[in-house]
Design goal:
Largest sheet: none
Oligomer: single chain
Shape: globular
Helix content: 55-70%
Distance between the termini: 58 Å
Order of helices and strands: HHHHHHHHHHHHHHHHHH
Length: about 350
């Protein structure tokens, strides 16, 4: 069988050539491929960059308001206000990330905004996030001493932006609980970039001016610690743990599954032990997708029911950060999405997370 000739992708090709997966010649107003085959030819409209004046307004909003909302820790607030902008002025992708963050912050903060102004801000957030994300992803494979601080700061920003979009009604889909959970899981690959930057540039980051942003992975309570607690949270999670333990079979795959589920359940339990004044609370709860075992993420993507129930408990933990604008009601949405999935065997285990988010 003759193999189809490979083609080298080009940016900005016409929509027809993209659909046919052939190389576009980029001729205007119609490319040669479409002209020769008598096919309709059209190019996607290039997104319009927001005005310079709007960028000035967004930068002012960021330095006056948004930077103060990025963390509950005064030291980190100072970094977001004074140090991160310095790196942004040297790395345009980070500067565009700040613009996107400021735009979404304004959207979240003003519920009486005129429709036209709202549309401009949403367009700005979309434009800057998409542009900056392309550069960020390209640079993840080339972390250097010169760019690691900008990459690390941007990794925090893109996580916040992604949560903010989930918590708001911007570009909201109507795919039901499965789509809601898929949207949340799509953050896992994005947030793993944070871990990649930290690993590749750890020595440079430790010696740099953003070193205070570095945090340790949360500790995982032992099974004995969970068993010895009598709080309502612990009692609910112990009951779930017992049911999961009863599912173990003789094969290695079954034992590995139960081990991952039990370990992740204890990781989530540890998030509820974080006192409100803890400096690591925001990092540990918000960074769950960074710290979670990849096998647990795989189980979620396979719609493992026990894993989904554990995700609902995480949603209850995330709900404790709902006062932070970019988290909002994401935790409650996670719990509701899991509740709406038909899982009769785990129905009673969802009572406690639902109570915590008011469902």
């Amino acid at each position: 069988m003759t193999k189809r000739k490979k083609y080298r992708k080009v940016r900005g090709g016409c929509l027809t050539c993209k659909e046919r997966k052939v190389r576009c010649g980029l001729e205007k107003p119609e490319c040669e491929n479409c002209t020769r085959l008598d096919r309709p030819c059209a190019y996607a409209e290039a997104p319009v960059r927001p005005s310079a004046m709007q960028e000035v307004e967004l930068m002012h909003h960021y330095t006056a308001y948004t930077c103060l909302s990025m963390s509950e820790n005064p030291v980190l607030r100072s970094l977001w206000r004074e140090i991160v902008p310095k790196h942004a002025f040297r790395h345009p992708f980070l500067l565009q990330g700040l613009f996107a963050c400021a735009a979404l912050h304004k959207v979240h903060g003003d519920h009486d905004m005129e429709p036209a102004a709202l549309a401009r801000l949403i367009h700005a957030a979309d434009f800057y996030q998409q542009n900056s994300l392309k550069t960020y992803i390209d640079l993840l494979s080339d972390v250097t001493e010169e760019n690691c601080h900008a990459l690390f700061a941007f990794s925090q920003i893109i996580a916040g932006l992604s949560f903010a979009r989930l918590s708001s009604n911007i570009h909201e889909h109507t795919g039901g609980p499965i789509a809601s959970i898929d949207s949340f899981l799509s953050l896992s690959e994005l947030m793993k970039g944070t871990l990649n930057v930290a690993i590749e540039g750890i020595e440079w980051l430790r010696e740099g001016d953003l070193r205070s942003m570095l945090g340790d992975a949360p500790s995982i309570p032992s099974q004995q610690e969970l068993a010895g607690s009598s709080t309502p949270c612990a009692r609910a999670m112990k009951t779930l743990s017992h049911q999961i333990a009863g599912q173990i079979q003789d094969d290695e795959a079954s034992r590995a599954r139960v081990e991952v589920l039990q370990s992740t359940l204890r990781l989530v339990y540890g998030l509820f032990l974080e006192p409100p004044e803890s400096k690591e609370r925001l990092n540990n709860i918000g960074g769950f997708l960074v710290f979670a075992d990849l096998d647990f993420i795989r189980l979620l993507k396979e719609w493992d029911h026990a894993a989904l129930v554990i995700l609902a408990y995480y949603g209850a933990a995330l709900h404790r950060l709902r006062h932070i604008w970019y988290y909002g009601d994401v935790g409650a949405k996670i719990v509701k999405a899991v509740k709406d999935i038909d899982m009769q065997a785990y129905f009673t285990h969802l009572s406690w997370p639902q109570q915590q988010v008011g469902i």
